[in-house]
């Protein structure tokens, strides 16, 4: 079990989280939704240890982070970008990097530089970099927000088909369809301080879901209602 207990975070005079609680089963893909600025990215940053907080965060282990921007190093090839996070590690680093690129569907771009690939390809390369790191928890902060819907669906399909690579996944998104197709569970955050206003488990398995399924339609209505209310 992954646990966030009594989480408190504040920025100057704004309290973002006050005694926030969240339990997540291992190997779960949890989509986190809510209005802009409610604390979604802050929650991921706390799990990653990037911002100061009070409280307990347990069980998430090492984290791989995929941001809204790919953050690839322009002077390195796609392969070199992935190998960069493996520097100093033992074993066949090249094989691990190429395996991750293959899982993300961009192995054929390994010798290209970031300025020579599309936004969707860069997002996949950034995902491969996080996968190669071998983290126990994958943090995704709207990494596909600016992508064409067709490209986005292709990336999501490959991620779901690979079982989100066996990691714990915290996935921030504003896209309801994205959440319904990716997640085992969806939470909607709202309020000030931030709290959970909807906690919804979705039918399994993810790869068998259809957008017109009655259970998915019912889940969509609940998520939209919660997003509208908060």
TrEMBL record:
<dbReference type="InterPro" id="IPR003439">
    <property type="entry name" value="ABC_transporter-like_ATP-bd"/>
</dbReference>
<dbReference type="InterPro" id="IPR050166">
    <property type="entry name" value="ABC_transporter_ATP-bind"/>
</dbReference>
<keyword id="KW-0813">Transport</keyword>
<dbReference type="Pfam" id="PF00005">
    <property type="entry name" value="ABC_tran"/>
</dbReference>
<feature type="domain" description="ABC transporter">
    <location>
        <begin position="2"/>
        <end position="216"/>
    </location>
</feature>
<dbReference type="InterPro" id="IPR017871">
    <property type="entry name" value="ABC_transporter-like_CS"/>
</dbReference>
<dbReference type="InterPro" id="IPR027417">
    <property type="entry name" value="P-loop_NTPase"/>
</dbReference>
<dbReference type="InterPro" id="IPR003593">
    <property type="entry name" value="AAA+_ATPase"/>
</dbReference>
<protein>
    <submittedName>
        <fullName>ABC transporter ATP-binding protein</fullName>
    </submittedName>
</protein>
<keyword id="KW-0067">ATP-binding</keyword>
<keyword id="KW-0547">Nucleotide-binding</keyword>
<dbReference type="GO" id="GO:0016887">
    <property type="term" value="F:ATP hydrolysis activity"/>
</dbReference>
<dbReference type="GO" id="GO:0005524">
    <property type="term" value="F:ATP binding"/>
</dbReference>
């Amino acid at each position: 079990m992954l646990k966030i207990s009594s989480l408190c975070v504040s920025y100057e005079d704004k309290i973002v989280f006050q005694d926030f609680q969240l339990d997540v089963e291992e190997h779960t893909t949890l989509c986190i939704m809510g209005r802009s600025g409610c604390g979604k990215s802050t929650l991921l940053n706390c799990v990653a240890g990037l911002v100061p907080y009070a409280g307990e965060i347990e069980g998430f282990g090492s984290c791989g982070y995929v941001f809204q921007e790919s953050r690839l190093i322009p002077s390195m090839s796609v392969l070199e970008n992935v190998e960069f996070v493996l520097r100093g590690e033992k074993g066949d680093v090249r094989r691990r990097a190429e395996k991750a690129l293959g899982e993300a569907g961009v192995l054929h771009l390994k010798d290209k530089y970031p300025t020579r690939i599309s936004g969707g390809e860069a997002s996949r390369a950034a995902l491969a970099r996080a996968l190669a790191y071998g983290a126990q928890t994958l943090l995704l902060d709207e990494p596909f927000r600016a992508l064409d819907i067709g490209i986005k669906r292709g990336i999501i399909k490959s991620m779901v088909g690979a079982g989100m690579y066996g990691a714990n996944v915290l996935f921030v998104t504003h896209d309801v369809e994205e959440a319904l197709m990716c997640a085992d569970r969806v939470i909607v955050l709202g309020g000030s301080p931030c709290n959970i206003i909807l906690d919804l488990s979705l039918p399994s398995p993810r790869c068998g879901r259809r957008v017109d399924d009655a259970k998915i339609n019912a889940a969509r209505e609940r998520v939209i209602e919660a997003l509208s209310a908060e």
